[in-house]
Amino acid sequence: MRRIPLSALLGLFITGLYFFVAIFAPLIAPYGMGDVVGGVWESSSAHFWLGTDSIGRDLLTRMIYGGRTTIFIATVATLLSFSVGATMGFTAAVVGGWVDQGLSRFIDLVMAIPSLIFALVVLSVMPVTVTTLILVMGLLDSTRVFRLSRAIAVDITVMDYVEAARLRGEGQIWIIFREILPNALSPLVAEMGMRFIFMVLFISTLSFLGLGVQPPLADWGGIVKENKEGIVYGITAALYPAIAIATLAISVNLVADWILNRTTSLKGGR
Amino acid sequence: MLLEIRNLQIGATVHPPGEPSRDIVIVDGVSLTLEKGRVLGLIGESGAGKSTIGLSPMAYGRGGVRITGGEILLNGRDIRKAGPAGLRDLRGREVTYVAQSAAAAFNPAKKLMEQVIETTLLHGLASRSEAEARAIKLFGKLGLPNPETIGNRFPHQVSGGQLQRVMTAMALCPQPELVIFDEPTTALDVTTQIEVLAAIKEAIRDTGVAALYITHDLAVVAQVSDEIMVLRSGKMVEYGPVQQIIEAPREEYTRALVSVRSIEHEEKTPVGEPVLAVKGITARYRGTHFDVLKRVTVDLRPGQTLAVVGESGSGKSTLARVITGLLPPRAGTIRFAGRTLSADLAGRSKDDLRELQMIYQMADVAMNPRHTVGTIIGRPLEFYFGLTGEAKRKRVQELLDEIEMGAGFIDRYPAELSGGQKQRVCIARALAAKPKLIICDEVTSALDPLVADGILKLLLSLQKREGVAYLFITHDLATVKAIADSIAVMYRGEVVRYGTKSDVLAPPFDDYTDLLLSSVPEMKIGWLEEVIAHRKMESAGN
Amino acid sequence: MHPVLKLITQRIALGILLLLAASVLIFVGTQILPGDVAQAILGQSATPLAVANLRKAMGLNDPAYVRYFHWLFAAMHGDLGHSLTNGADVATDMTGRMLNTLFLAGTAAVIAVPTAILLGLIAVRYQGRWPDKVITGVTLATVSVPEFLLGYILMFFFAVKFRVAPSVAMINESMSLGAKLHAIMLPVAVMVLVVLGHMMRMTRAAILNVMQSAYIETAELKGVRPFLVIFRHAFPNAISPVVNVVMINLAYLVVGVVVVEVVFVYPGMGQYLVDHVAKRDVPVVQACGLVFAAVYILLNMLADVISILANPRLRHPK
User: Fold this and answer.
1) pLDDT score of C35
2) For residues A25 and A219, what is the distance between their CA atoms, to the nearest angstrom?
3) ∠ at Cα C243 (C237, C249), nearest 5°?
4) In the predicted model, what is the mean pLDDT of residues B352-378?
């Protein structure tokens, strides 16, 4: 086993910590999610480590529960985006012909409209629930995964070893799972990290615009929205999510970089 | 003395991903001298450090390579002490460079003339009109068509052989004292290579410039050099006048290089029912409008070798795709082992697939980098014969023994093997299927000559033992002489000459076969002039 | 016809086709609600009469394709329909806001594009040394924070703490250009920071890719100075990838502007769109969606046309 570099270790640790806090939020958070426990925008103290928010709820508690919501939605949407995108991408690359043409042109079309704008258009008529959000985000994002996985798979299918397997008489299942997938896995996993970060940013933006997670549920984008009026009075409550999102994004990036590097070395450093 | 290199040391820092960086030695203690107007050939296999040494008179290192010790004296001054401005002044004025791939070495966005005279103008050696006149003269001398106007073209509008001549003109235009030729003809087709080589030789002689000529092909360097230095793994093996190196090599390694491609193979007479009979095949790629193969008809007897020879674009690799079923032909039939093969892959039985195996040119992309040698060789055993577990492992071991590789390789990944070992594993994978016919597509062209010789010997001994037939596709006539029983010469999609080896290689020749045969460099001084004088036809690549 | 002309014509035709298809997609996107749109817009407590009136106002009694073509033809004639919430003409409402948005995005682009290319060139020239590392590090930080948060961070420091810029970007027609520029200082800064990071990194990668070509080595071996190598040999070949980078990022600005306008309460298209999404005002949302998509498609098309024009192989065929 190779030594894990320090940067990746740090990234793994922080990412793990965020997920741990998200899963065990009810046990970790000092107060209940919606409990009003203090005055409006109290500054940080022994009772309220990060102070209180616009209606007197403990901000640390809101951040912990907010992280839970944000990370949960981002994770499920990423999984959805990957299962749909990668399946379609591999199918298009391996089957080729009309299936490939049809899928690719349709994806081009969806990608011709910016994701945020498309999401807003759809959300203007859909009921804004967690399920809708996950579906809309996951499906819109699957277009990017489709392009990547198709491109990777196309690169691999033209390799002589895939041709050799075809000439041997192997079926599509062997070719996809034994010849293509092992070689495509690492860039896909690295991309998964990038898509997860994008999902965190996406859901935060939607919530900030008031079109994402609805109150009383907390999420990082929503915390900014609830506390933004405080900024002009010098209240920093709306800025904590920035730190949370940026540290999460950077640590996931570090892990993704490491995965990508580790796998290129297996191919003999080429 | 124009150039004197004393005890040159060159090193580099490599950064293997996931491991700490480390320093490696590329060139170790090499010394040489070169007088004005002389040509020194640097020869060696890949990794010998010949290109690195070649670039040292310009004090240039590619990708992290740096000179770590020794002296490089150009006209008596040590260029290692020159500093960046001094080096810029020297590069392009005193020393110029001709790269292996001219197609990549020219800026695609600029006209040829701009690039050819850039150095001359940059160093203030002549006015623009003088420089252009010089360039046009050089174009003519190097045998380029329309020397007056070819400079107005862009690199992509000119053929590969012509670009290499333009690159030579670019190197000679500033009238340097030393030109470095770095494998200038290696990327060209065989028939083009000889003509470019002759043009370069003439230009060197006419201008009286000194040259370092780098190549992996001893027969080529013997034609242009006055002296030769043989290199191996960054160290000098032998250094002497060309006559001595070719005719009386002192070192074991040099002797091996000189005698390479001297495998003797006795031709077998064509007996028995053909194992493969290709009849009237015409084929084209989807979406194109011309036939890549035109009415190709050839036979191959069991246990024998048919060599299909031709240059790039002759259709020889397409023929392999048609036979394997990857490209269904527009017309014609293929009979294999007494039955007619379905035109496309999907219609072939498991036995059809098993008995017809293929070995590729690039062994590293022919094996899945994520599978071990054991999996790669074991899969056909499992797939065709249902072998599993211990039985499979035992058979893989036997196959590894047959290709002269030891027990330790079974759990290794392809990335851990050398080029020759990779190709051997591919051979074992083909053998595992117990085939009647193996198609070998340029299987030795990516390998160094000595390694290639080893592969050819292995293929011959396997044929003797297993009775397998080979369809051997190659552009290299020396290989053909070493291994074939019968030969088909292909040119622009057609078989222009076909018969037993002795018939095909005996005069009278048709024009193309003559051109092709005369293009194989021989290990003989003065051969180049003889050949050029007797040519009947020009190469298509010019 | 010259092959370049043919390719460009094809690309423009494709752009128009794509725009038409996008209009279908946007229309379908507002119709995919299971059940009744009018009911959903008005909520469960609405009277049946109100629902029926809304259905009629939206033309919901016609089949979907009829409504699509009505909408499309009207839109082609400049009629984008009427707002459901206040009955105002969408096209009239949108014009002023669109100009405001163009002003904001345009200012950001004018600053960001040259800066990004310059920084990219500097990073390439000093590759692996400290200027490169500083530039790459800082831009990594700016692209890891969402636009709206970057907005509040800047607002907190520059508007609240140091009081050098206004915290909201209110502009109107009577203001002078100088006053307008002062008002949009912070939103422009946010957009420049966000786009700069992406654009600089992509420019750097594009030029580095060109710098690895064999012809760059040829130039170095001719004794050409490093600056001239980049300028004379790398840049002409980097035009098409760099133009692509610029266009991708301008398209990115189009989306970024939506969020930034909301943060700084700027009277532009983005603010308008977000307000009406919350009010479920379908005609406004459709119209805004169409305009944003059109700008996006246009920019991508432009990028492709420029890279076709910059390719010597296409301009000078064999």
Assistant:
1) 53
2) 13
3) 145
4) 91
pLDDT 10s digits, B139-149: 998 888 889 99
The CATH class for the domain spanning B3-258 reads: alpha beta
Chain C's closest residue to A250, CA to CA, is: C144
User: Cα separation of A131 and A116, whole Å?
Assistant: 17
Q: What is the DSSP letter of A180?
A: I
Give the mutation candidate from C41, C67, C145, C148 for the A interface (greatest A CB count, under 10 A). C148
| ipTM of predicted complex | 0.80
Contact B106 C316 (CB under 8 A): no
CATH of span B303-328+341-506: 3.40.50.300
Q: Residue C196 in 3-state DSSP? A: helix
The DSSP element (H or E) to which B423 belongs, if any, is: helix B419-432
Enumerate residues 257 to 316 of chain C having a beta carbon within 8 A of any beta carbon in chain B: 312-313, 316
| Distance, CA of B352 to CA of B341 (rounded, Å) | 8
Mean pLDDT of chain C: 81
**CB-based contacts of B434, cutoff 8 Å, min separation 6:** B354, B355, B384
Task: Read off the DSSP letter of residue B341.
Answer: P
CB contact under 8 A, B17 and A261: yes
Domain coordinates in residue numbering, chain A:
21-26+51-263
pLDDT number for residue B17: 56
* Predicted confidence (pLDDT) at residue A3 exceeds the cutoff of 70: no
> Residues A122-145: what's their mean pLDDT?
87
Domain ranges of chain B: 3-258, 303-328+341-506
Region C268-291: mean pLDDT is: 84
pLDDT of residue A266: 41
* Residue A145, SS3 per DSSP: helix
In this complex, is the C-beta atom of C213 within 8 Å of any C-beta atom belonging to chain B? yes
Of B358, B364, B414, which is closest to A164 when you measure between CB atoms?
Answer: B358
Q: What percent of chain A has pLDDT over 70?
A: 95
With CB atoms and an 8 Å threshold, state whether B19 touches A164: no
Catalogue all structural domains in chain C, each as residue range(s) with its CATH number: 90-315 (1.10.3720.10)
CB contact under 8 A, A245 and C32: no
Shortest alpha-carbon distance between residue C109 and chain B (Å):
28
Distance between CA atoms of residues A261 and C81, nearest Å: 54
Provide the CATH number for the domain formed by A21-26+51-263 in this structure.
Answer: 1.10.3720.10
Res B63: pLDDT: 74
Could you tell me if A83 lies within 8 Å of chain B, comparing CB atoms? Answer: no
> Which residues in chain B are contacts of C233 at CB distance < 8 A?
107, 110
In the block, which residue shows the tokens 């006539």? B477
Facing residues of B179 across strands? B96, B211
Chain B residues lying within 8 Å of A261, measured CB to CB? 17-18
Q: Where are the alpha helices (DSSP H) in chain C?
A: 3-29, 37-42, 48-57, 64-76, 90-125, 130-143, 147-154, 177-183, 185-211, 214-221, 226-228, 235-263, 269-278, 282-310, 312-315
